[in-house]
């Protein structure tokens, strides 16, 4: 029974990985077959006609198999999935910085594939292993729920990690912005300096905002898009203060310096809060794992004497 469960689990993980990889890779640019064979002929010193069958075999797996299926699947997902759920998924992908890697419809396809694979694995386990009725019913109920919730949980974790990274990098970024503006650079030039010296999600978002302003989008609209793409309260407060200073004619350098000091103070408070929570978090591992071992070491040698004395 254990070997069957291990086999079913292996096929489930492998199938989910292939489905997710194929859906994501289907959006990459198509493989240029003629250019590929031309390069081969150039390397070999010969230039001959390209065989159609060999050209098709030379294409990657996701171009030959997954891409036609994913196109049909995307139409089906768009037709049958509620638009509100697709909008929420797109919003999470935007906050996680994954909109360039996948679309909301592709993520729903990955969820559906994981749900179907786990459900089929549970059915195969029930047919082959014949477990207890209670166990079988529990597996049939939990398999689709787990298959649907695992991708959503992964996406939520990506959103949380990215927002935490933006929050950690915000004080240092504001310091560099304030120093650059006080040195005589314009605000756009200071943003470019930040994008050159930092490699982080916040620097990527600032680079995108700077690119939008270079394309002619007003500064207010570009920073409103920045707020929408990040949804970090501290960054939203900074954007609001910056836009108010720009509207009222207040020097931006003074605003940046004030915001940098405030962000450093908030980061220090955040670190103190994390340190204050550590004793409470360490209490449960101590009670569950360390204290029993200490009790065994201390009272173990005395168990024989105590039991002999009680007799």
What does this molecule look like?
The protein is mainly α and 311 residues long. It folds into two domains: 2-131, no CATH class; 165-267, Receptor-associated Protein (Up-down Bundle), CATH 1.20.81. Helix content is 85%, strand content 0%. The longest helix is centred in the last third of the chain and has 59 residues, at 252-310. It is flat and about 90 Å long. It starts with a helix and ends with a helix. Residues 1-8, 18-34 and 40-50 have low confidence and may be disordered.
Quaternary: single chain
What is the helix/strand order?
Answer: HHHHHHHHHHHH
Mean pLDDT: 79
For the record, the count of structural domains works out to 2
Largest sheet: none
Overall form: flat
- The helix count comes to 12
Percentage of helical residues? over 70%
Strand portion: under 5%
Structural class: mainly alpha
Separation of termini?
Answer: 46 Å
What is the number of E strands? Answer: 0
Please mark out the parts with pLDDT under 50 across 5 or more consecutive residues, or reply none: 1-8, 18-34, 40-50
Radius of gyration: 29 Å
